[in-house]
Every structure is written in C-alpha cells, then in structure tokens.
Amino acid sequence: MFAQLIEHLPHKEFQKCVARYRGDRYAKNFSCWDQYLAMAFAQFTYRESLRDIETCLGAVAGKLYHMGFHASVARSTLADANESRDWRIYADFAQTLIGTARTLYARDPLSVDLEQSLYALDSTTIDLCLSLFPWAKFRRYKAAVKMHTLLDLHGNIPTFIRVTSGNVHDVNLLDEILPEAGAFYVMDRAYIDFQRLFVFTLSSAFFVVRTKSNVLLQRRYSHPVDKSTGVRSDQTVILTSFESASVYPDALRRVSYFDAETNKRLKFLTNNFALPALTIAQIYKCRWQVELFFKWIKQHLRIGLVPLSETRS
C-alpha cells in the first residue's frame, strides 16, 4: 500500500528540487529520496521516534526495495539527514504537490456565488512544553509556535504555510504574500494594517477584512440595502486618521451585517465596490473553513522530541 501511494509522487520533480539545492552532494548510500520515504512512512504509520522508524522498517527489510528505498535505514543516519539536509528541498516539493492538488479541485463550488479565486488567511498557535522546547519560548512559562496559513477555499488546500515563533504578529505575514490579481483574500481583524492592505489594491487584488472599533472612518456615500438579508448598511468611506490615510489614500467600502445565528453585528472593510453587500458578508463567512483546517491539523499533528542519546547510540 505504501508503494502504491508513493507511485503517485512525481519523482522527477523531486529530483529537480534536490538538484536545485545540491541535496545529494555528500550523500553516499542514504539519498534525499530515502529520507523523504522514511519520514513519509513515519507519518503514515504514526511512528514516535527514530528508533521506532528503524525497527519497523528493519522488520520488513526484504520489502524495502519494493517500497522505493535504495538502502536500509539506520536511526543515526536518519538523524544526520534530518539535521543537515536543506529543508527547502522538501518545501519546494510540497509546493509542487500543492499545485497538482489545486488543479484537481479548481472547479469545486464555493458556498458563495464568486467566480474569482478565494483565499482565507489566518494563523493558529500550537502550544508546546517549555522544558522540552526552550527555543520556542512564547511567554514566561509557556512555549508555542504559530502556523500561518493561506488556504485556497476551492478544495480547502493550503497554498502557503509558514511556521514562526509564537510571538510573531499575524500582520507581518502580509509581507510574504504576493497578491494574485483578481483574487479575493478574507482575513480577520488581526490583519488590519492599511499600508500592507494597500498593496492588495495596487496589485488589483481584493480583500475582505473585519474592521476594528478604533478605526477612524468618515462616511461619504450610503447605498440602499435589503435589510431582510441581514445587511444593515453599505457605505463608501475614507480613512480620517492621518497615519492611515497617508498610506491608504483610496476610498473603502464598509458593510455592516447582522448575523442572526450568533446575534452579532459584524462590520467589514473591502476594496471591492462591484459585488453585492450580501456577497461580501458571505465571503467573510467562508473564512470559517480555515478554522476547520486548523482543527484538523491539531487533531493529526504529532510533535515529539527525540533524545540525543537515541540518535547517536
């Protein structure tokens, strides 16, 4: 079964990634492909340590060749590879696989009537034990990392993932995203930074973000709305704070929506003036998919610490 799964991977594309960073330059018997297969096997079968990986693969030594391995797997060799091999090899290969998956799900329907691409940007904090992971210190007695994710809502496939220390603010990740012209990006209040949001406007991309109460706005126009849909107002506004207006000089659209399910009134800012106000509110509702993705990740993510004595013994 493992061999059948691996057959679907584009081996030539993997070798291109290896050649790009010269990953096999000093490899004699244990190549980057062997390392990838060993770690994939560990994830599929829920191995908990290097010794566990070595023992399980050693138990089927006669089948390793048919599984794609070119050599037996020793825990010390695997530990050295995990420590010294360039991580960008596997990051680039992941992007190749993501590109393939996005093509398969490109025509999946959304819960909102929208022809353009729709992305949700958010982050989640993954708590760690401070005594085991001192490098991930988050607060005085707490360790954590953050996983920042840009989720393509056509198929709910992540197109961008960055793991940072827990104290990195979400808004900083806007600097690492190249907006796609014509696409929509939906974000929560943590991403309110008008200088960074103006980059989306300059790139002909659209954003829908929930606004904060302390954002100073002046109403220029009010547009008629159908309040039976939950939309309470649809306004063209400008920023009145000097700091904000100097970095975002264009007008914005503010949509107010009452959610009967949660009994909350939500206000959104967007740079799109063409879609109906109800569609803007529905786009923001799609952001919930990234929360479900984080929930799935935390249910399946396994983080462990391998003692040095095990890797070298």
Written overview of the protein:
A hairpin with a 2-residue loop joins β2 (137-139) and β3. The radius of gyration is 24 Å and the shape is elongated. Strands 1, 2, 3, 4, 5, 6, 7, 8, 9 and 10 form a 10-stranded mixed beta sheet that branches. The two termini are 31 Å apart. The model is unreliable at 305-313 (pLDDT under 50). It has 313 residues and is α+β, with helices and mostly antiparallel strands. The protein has 12 helices and 10 strands.
Provide the gyration radius in Å.
24 Å
N→C terminal distance: 31 Å
Question: What's the β-strand tally?
Answer: 10
Find the structural class using helix and strand composition.
alpha+beta
Content of β-strand: 15-25%
Q: Can you tell me the overall shape?
A: elongated
Enumerate the spans where pLDDT stays under 50 for 5 or more consecutive residues.
305-313
Largest sheet: 10 strands, mixed
Helix content: 25-40%
- Estimate the mean pLDDT confidence: 89
Helix and strand run = HHHHHHHEEEEEHEEEHEEHHH
Keywords for this structure?
disordered C terminus, 313 residues, elongated, 12 helices, alpha+beta
